[in-house]
Amino acid sequence: MADPIALSALILDAAIGWPARLYAMVGHPVGLFARLINAGERHWNNPRRSEDQRRLLGILLMILLIGAVGGIAWLAQRAAHPLGWLIVALLAFPALAQRSLFDHVRPVARALEAGDLPTARHAVSMIVGRDTQALDESGIARAAIESLAESFCDGIAAPLFWLLIGGLPGVWIYKAVNTADSLIGHREEPWRAFGWAAARTDDLMNLIPARIGGVLICVAGGGGWRILRRDARKHASPNAGWTESAMAGCLKLRLAGPISYDGVMQDKPWIGDGRMVATAADIRRALAIYVRACLLLWVIAGGWAWAL
């Protein structure tokens, strides 16, 4: 039996997460990645450079980022192992977001249940990038559910996958790449060329975890398979549609559709063919499916340790 590092990291994350007091004191490792990426973007993503030059500099930034993060994590893992596998789990669990995601989505349901739309809009604005000021109850609920489903992959399933495959270097390289994609991996200018490598690397690293995540949500929700097969590829991302379509199918809701970003309406296709009106009760149901899907990941992590 191998050391249960991944299972222990999941349990630690669910039990304590990343406390707000600790975040206020030292921030989060992802914040360090963000500062490095933003510094590279400021110095190298100069509009006076050609598109090819900016693309090459974006590739260089990702090579340096992956090399630095992977190297530091590898050294930390080597130093920690003689002290025990639990130390490695302690270094790995901040890369997971089970508790954080749950704690950010549940307040949206609570505010909607209380009929407090301004608070609900503020709560959902903390987890989505779309415009939230004009969202009605259904729009708020759909946004929360979509974020929960999509983040199940890049917040839990994918980091766990890379922790199992690559240990401490694997999980933190994934988080660095995912952070880079969030900051610069956009199709719009001025990031399109410079962020190309970040976006493509993130797509590649999420390829398998997204499909695993979609399957786990269907298992946890007791359905959704038809919508998963039909609509997983409707999303602009090659990966996000898998977990989102699975959740839409389980809840018998329509998700995605036209969405406003920075005042510009984007005509995205609908995912799912159920109800268009979502409520706080649907968020609660989505959270219940999410918890069960996370527990399935615990089973996988435990089985991985036992099998090895």
Following the backbone from N to C, one meets helices and strands in this order, namely HHHHHHHHHHHEEEEH
* C-alpha-based Rg, rounded: 19 Å
Helix segment count? 12
- What is the assembly state of the chains in this entry? single chain
Report the sheet with the most strands, covering strand number, pairing sense and barrel closure.
2 strands, antiparallel
Q: Average the pLDDT over all residues and give the rounded result.
A: 93
Query: How many strands appear in the DSSP assignment?
Result: 4
Instruction: Look at the helices and sheets and give the structural class.
Output: mainly alpha
Helix content: over 70%
Q: How many structurally independent domains?
A: 1
Beta-strand fraction estimate: under 5%
Placed side by side, the strands forming the largest sheet appear as 1-4
Straight-line distance between termini: 5 Å
Segments where pLDDT lies below 50 for 5+ residues? none
- The outline comes out as globular
Name the descriptors.
single chain; 308 residues; two-stranded antiparallel ribbon; globular
Write up this protein:
The protein has 308 residues and is mainly alpha-helical. It has one domain (5-307). The chain has helices spanning 5-16, 20-26, 29-44, 51-80, 85-92, 98-113, 117-125, 137-184, 196-221, 225-231, 240-251, 280-307; strands at residues 255-256, 259-261, 264-266, 270-271. The strands form two sheets. The protein has a two-stranded antiparallel ribbon with strand order 1-4. Strands 2-3 form a two-stranded antiparallel ribbon. The longest helix has 48 residues, at 137-184.
